[in-house]
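Incident review: delayed structure delivery

Summary: a single-chain prediction request sat in the queue longer than the usual turnaround. Root cause was a stuck worker, restarted by the on-call engineer. No data loss occurred. The affected request and its eventual output are reproduced below so the record is complete for anyone auditing the incident later.

Affected input:
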Amino acid sequence: MIRKYTIKGLVQGIGYRPWVARLAEELNICGWVRNTGGIVTVMASGDEAQLDEMYRRLSCDVPTGGFVNSIDALEVDNSSEDFSTFKILESDEDTGENLPLIPADIATCDKCAKELMNPDNRRYRHPFISCTICGPRYSIIKKLPYDRDTITMGDFDMCPECHREYTAKNDRRRHAQTIACPECGPKLFFKVVSGPDIIEYDEIQSAATFIKQGGIVAIKDIGGYHLACDPHNENAVAQLRALKHREAKAFAVMFENIDQVREYCLVSEEEASLLEEPARPIVLVKRLSENARSFPQNVCLTSPSIGAMLPCNPVQIMLAQECGPLIMTSGNASGDVLETDNDCMIAWMTERANAPEMAGAGLAVLGHNRDILRPMDDSVMKIVHGRRQFVRRARGYVPNPISVDIDGEIFAGGGDLKSSFCYIKNGLAYVSQYLGDLESVSCQEFYTKEKEAMTRIFGFNPKQATVDMHPGYFSRVSVENSCKAIGLPVTEVQHHMAHVASVIAEYQLKGPVLGFAFDGTGYGNDGMIWGSETFLWNGHSMDRVAHLEPSRLIGGNEGAKNCKTILTGMLHSNGITPKEVTMESQLIMAAIDKNINVVKSTSMGRLFDAVASMLDICHYNSYEGQAPIELENVAATANEAYPLTIPENGETIHLFVDIMDALDKNVDKAAIARGFIYAVADYIVAVANKNKKHLDANNQIVLSGGTFLNTILLERTIDLLEDAGYNVYTAQQLPPGDGGICLGQAYLSRYIN
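Output delivered after worker restart:
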């Protein structure tokens, strides 16, 4: 009896074919298994009981990192093929009918990690050790099917011993496409750019010694270069900040294991589980009190949390063992694309070594000769109120698709800040990795290149495209230009509506939804800058039902970064004269009165900026969201919240008057900051209660937008809403900020004529 199985799901790049072969051999079944584009085909010969058991096992089991969506079984009447054994056949080209699933880059598994540190193993300290269930995947694939010659490992010929393992029936590396060893695999190099020459017995030891002596090393990992230094060395951390032009953001720290993380941080079981996932994200965890073990102040700055991560590849495993905790930050200048090219990294480090602010700094590069085809920043996550929340979605999770109730083939361009795009096909949303802020030319080029790469690899052929309403967004203009050339229709979706719709799409919510979209900026339907919007979704359209009272602010990028300017504009819009009138504030008020470069804004993010400046916490956003982040950091130190309110009509005049009064009374600024955040949560509940009559028995509330990355605000809001009987939904598979709006754009595009 002969049966053909067609298996769809994430069944490539995870050792699925050798797993099927072992299953067939266990059941004494003959035939073959083969990749065909994005699916796996199995031809099996045996008796009915054997084939039924194979079908059951194929349906229930799958190697680590994969999943099966469907299995089609077809009886084959006769075949001229030889069914004397079971074989793994070479892959076929795809017909284009199947939508492939490709695994994300996977952390080194426990078995490989054990071999890595075993002196008796032939892969002892081999920096590229991997097997069928671990190692790089998406970052090194050129095209489907996933085979040795379609990934960058095809540049390295297997030695006889690796080839023996690759073809052996019972070997863990049977048909492992990234198989390599010290004899035949990629090679590390270590190059000192400035500082003392280091010569140790291998490149890892040289890099570790350089770091221990206070140097900074650029380390090429799975997704690109990291910059690493000793977090206990305050001078090295200061030099790293100068190197990256990153003075105000906290650094992430890599620890050897969970026990080491717990020496510095409070780690819940949920956070520990997240840290140890195969994706190995950075997880924001609370620092221990000041009298516990800690790092110098310039590592985490004012943040009450540490961005903790565990090693995800052999190089990191060995360095963490040699050095202990290490700062690991993206290998680029702030705002640029993550570097993957060896020559470019050496050139950049050489150039920076000659800068006056880098005088005396030790700089080195630990690279390798395996190409990385697509840069992958570390994913960043946290646990809020028991829920997972992405701050940044990239390595380890991309390109895993999200199941959605969206018909057709659609491309959604996303936004320009924290940019990502997505393709929709067969009810799956393929969202790109974090692409950066598209005001940077390098990020614009990255966006275009990744869009073309995903189209090629997955075979997407969208029938329509959708973009943000902002007429100046690169993500809009570039998509419109490319679609115009091929006659593809383009629709536009309002930014904050897309925020709400992204969560609706993620949970496939039915019935009415009240959605809150709070962030810094987005182009509104009326030409104003929105950012504190509440919408009522009725299943086919959204109505704007609430927002903050508009303020007249100075426009442009500088106007959005200067918190003093924002505060002056908001006070002036409310008829409030600042206590200290400076020449600068007089000029701002005069410009507003004469309508010179003025915008109207309802932005919640700008309100956070204004309050941060008013409390003398932060006066300038040197990176996006800095003032709200520092405001939250100060609020986290408060034991209580000073009572403040924002009425449901969105007026802010009394908020500012009450804050000024509190400052006159010398109320603790931390208490005022926490009181302001609580006032925003109370405002949300008031608006929800006012519009509750429009909801059904499910009482569905969506919270979305970058402002909800504020943990204090999100936890407080969820508690209040759930106590009031609402069901609250927040993004868990995508970031709540602009990195998630592409999904909402795709969802709403079908309701736009």
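Verification: Residues 188-368 form a domain with the DHBP synthase fold (CATH 3.90.870.10).
Action items: add queue-age alerting; document worker restart procedure.
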